[in-house]
Amino acid sequence: MAELSTIARPYAEALFAAVSDERQGLESWSALLSEMAQVAGLHDVREALNDPRLNNGQRLELFTGLVKSPVTEKARNFLQLLVDNQRILLLPQIAEQFELLKHQLEGTAQAQIISAFPMAEAQIAELTAGLEKKFGLKLKPTVTVDADLIGGIRVIVGDQVLDTSVQARLASMRDTLTA
C-alpha cells in the first residue's frame, strides 16, 4: 500500500494547499473527502468506475451522484482531475494523506491504542496525557481491545509504534532464543 499512498500524496497536498486558507473549510473538506473515500472504497462502485464502456464524464456523474453531501464546484473540479488521470479510486488514500496534513497543521495526531483489556476513561486520559508529553502533540485517541495481546498495550501514533504487550515480549524472547 505504500505505493498507493505515494501516488495519492501529491493530490492530497495540492488539495490541502488549495483549501488550507479556508480554516473552517478544512473540517468540511475532511468530512467530504471521508465520505468520498467511503464511496470509492465500495466494491460495486470500483467495478462500475472501471467499466470501459463509461467515458470520463459518465464516471464523474456516476460518482457525484453517489455522494450524499453537496459537491461544490471546487470539489467537482478535484473529482474531474482524478477521473481524467484515472485516480478516482485512490480517494481512500488521498483522504488519509489529507487527514495527516490537517493533523500536522493543527499540531495533533491520531493515537491508536490497542489494549488487551477494556480501559476506563480515567486510564485513557492518563495514558493520553503521558503520550502527549512524549510525542509533543495533542493526541486524539482511538481505543480498541485485542485479547491476543494477552496483557499490556500497543500504541500507534503516525508511523511510530510503542508495544508493551505480553505478546510482543514473548515474540522478542522467542527471537532471542532462536537466534
TrEMBL record:
The keyword ATP-binding does not apply. One of its GO terms (molecular function) is proton-transporting ATP synthase activity, rotational mechanism. It is found in: Cell membrane; Membrane. Keywords: ATP synthesis, Cell membrane, CF(1), Hydrogen ion transport, Ion transport, Membrane, Transport. SUPFAM superfamilies: N-terminal domain of the delta subunit of the F1F0-ATP synthase (SSF47928). One of its GO terms (cellular component) is plasma membrane. It comes from the Bacteria. It is a peripheral membrane protein. Belongs to the ATPase delta chain family. This protein is part of the stalk that links CF(0) to CF(1). It either transmits conformational changes from CF(0) to CF(1) or is implicated in proton conduction. F(1)F(0) ATP synthase produces ATP from ADP in the presence of a proton or sodium gradient. F-type ATPases consist of two structural domains, F(1) containing the extramembraneous catalytic core and F(0) containing the membrane proton channel, linked together by a central stalk and a peripheral stalk. During catalysis, ATP synthesis in the catalytic domain of F(1) is coupled via a rotary mechanism of the central stalk subunits to proton translocation. This is ATP synthase subunit delta. It comes from Alcaligenes pakistanensis. The gene is atpH.
